[in-house]
Amino acid sequence: MRRYDRPFRWAGRGLIRYTGPLSFPVLHYGYDGWSAPQDLPMQRDDAGWVAAIPTAGRHVVDCVVRSARSQECDNNDGADYRLWIGLDPVDAHTHVRAPGGGTLGFDSLRTAAFSGGMTHALVSWTDNDLVEIVAEATPWLTPLVWVRPGGPDPADVRRRLAAGGAGLKLHPAYDGYPADTPGLDPYLRVAQEAGVPVTVHSAPGPADPDLIRRLAERFPAVRFVLYHTYLGPPEGRKRALRHAAALPNLYLETSWCRSAEAERLLDELGPDRVLFGSDAATDGPDHYVRRPPNIEMTENYNTGLLRLAQRLAPDVFRAFISGNARKLFSLPPAYPQRRRRLFRRPSL
C-alpha cells in the first residue's frame, strides 16, 4: 500500500477492501449516518481483506475496523471512515501547510478526507514547494499553484502547471491586494495559455465578488471558481450568484455553505457550475464530522452532504460532488483500471 493511500476502498459494488495495518479485521459498519450497525469478519485475498455487504437503497457506508485477535481498532483517529456508494467524491478546496496534525496539517487533512469519503482533493497553500511534495506522495491529491502580484515568476508557474498543477489559487484577503488588480494579469495569461481554471477566495473587502467579476470580464477565456461562493453575509452570496448567472466563466464552490444554500445555488445556477469543497482541514481532523456543527452552527459536512444526496436528483448530486470538479480541473477517474490494480500491491 502506498504510504498515503486510503486503507478503505470499493473493490466493486458492495465489496469493501481494507489494506490498513490490522490483521484479521472485522468490519463494523452502518449506513447513512451509522444506522443499523453490525459486524462482519473480513476475508483475506491477494490484495488485502474484503467484505461483501448489501448496498441497495443506501448512499454511504460508515465504518471502522476492529481486530478479531486483539483490542486494536482502526477508526481513522476517532473520525471513522465513510464510503460513498457508486460515487467518487472530490473535495475541490483543501489546504496543507505542514506535516503532522493540527490546523492545516497533512495528517489532519488525511483524516478529514477519509472521514468524509473523499477520493480526491485539490490542495493549495502559499508554499508551493511543500504542496508539490505532499501531492507527489499522495495519489489522491492534486496541487493548485498559489500566486500573488509580484510572485512567483510566471515561468515558474508554467513549470508547475506542466508538472501536474491543475490550476491557480488566488487569496486577495490573505495576501492583501484587490482581486481585480492588473498585477495578476501575467498569471492569468499563463492560466489562459495552459487552459486551467483559477480559484479565488471570495469574501468581503479585497476579495469581493464584484472585483472577481471584473477579472472574469477581463479574461473571458479563463474559468474562475469563487471559493466559498462568498464567505460572509447572505447578500454577498446573492451577488456572487448573479455574477455567475451573467458570466459563463464563473463557477461557485460551496465550502462553509449550509446544504440548503448549496441546494439553492444548484437550483438557480444549474448543476454544471457548482462544486463541492470544504476548506479542509481548517477545523483539524474532525473537519467533516465536527460537533458542535461547524457550518453556521447547524450542520457539519457529513450531515450536509448526506442531506443533499437524499434530496437532489442523482445526476445533479453526482455532478456537484464529483463530476464538475473532475471535468473542470481535468482530474483522473478515482480508480483507473480498477479491477486490475486492486489485485496487486502498488509499489512504494
From TrEMBL:
<dbReference type="InterPro" id="IPR005085">
    <property type="entry name" value="CBM25"/>
</dbReference>
<dbReference type="InterPro" id="IPR013783">
    <property type="entry name" value="Ig-like_fold"/>
</dbReference>
<keyword id="KW-0378">Hydrolase</keyword>
<dbReference type="Pfam" id="PF04909">
    <property type="entry name" value="Amidohydro_2"/>
</dbReference>
<feature type="domain" description="Carbohydrate binding module family 25">
    <location>
        <begin position="12"/>
        <end position="86"/>
    </location>
</feature>
<dbReference type="InterPro" id="IPR006680">
    <property type="entry name" value="Amidohydro-rel"/>
</dbReference>
<dbReference type="GO" id="GO:0005975">
    <property type="term" value="P:carbohydrate metabolic process"/>
</dbReference>
<dbReference type="GO" id="GO:2001070">
    <property type="term" value="F:starch binding"/>
</dbReference>
<dbReference type="GO" id="GO:0016787">
    <property type="term" value="F:hydrolase activity"/>
</dbReference>
<dbReference type="InterPro" id="IPR032466">
    <property type="entry name" value="Metal_Hydrolase"/>
</dbReference>
<protein>
    <submittedName>
        <fullName>Predicted metal-dependent hydrolase, TIM-barrel fold</fullName>
    </submittedName>
</protein>
